[in-house]
Amino acid sequence: MEIPDDVGSKLSFEFPLSTERLKLPYVISFIKVPIAKGEIIRKSDSLWVECEINSELLCTCDRCAAEYKRAKCIEISVPVIEIEDGEEEEEPSFFYAVGGILELGELLEETFILEMETRSLCREDCKGLCPRCGIDLNYEKCSCRPPIDPRLAVLEQLLDVKDK
Predict the structure, then answer these.
(1) Which of 73, 104, 117, 154 makes a 20 to 30 Å CA pair with 27?
(2) What global pTM score does this model have?
(3) Which domain holds residue 131?
């Protein structure tokens, strides 16, 4: 994408992100493809990218394995470092414009991935599955006994002797 030269000038953009590169273990599919909409802004002494990425995903819960839909909106406001062709990018976490060209698609895809949560939960208070019988504890209560700490197993044997 060409970079605006004049101070105060803006270049608007809107484009879909490539879902091929947006692989996350808990995302089954994209219901709504992520759309990046924003501007490249030339300020007095710097260049900025300000945009919003909106998407809707079909995910799998990490605790109960249920499928659920979730909307995701990411707001981005980052400076762009301008370098000449042949110069090395010193810090991979910055946005770089090399020789007046900004590869915005890949940068926004990386930012989208980095802004996603590391765990996916269908709801904040998800109880998950019983590790013994597999019942979804969000909807049913299981009758499994909780596991006994091996260090306290001797005490359980004392209770068994007392009951006899």
Answers:
(1) 104
(2) 0.75
(3) 127-164
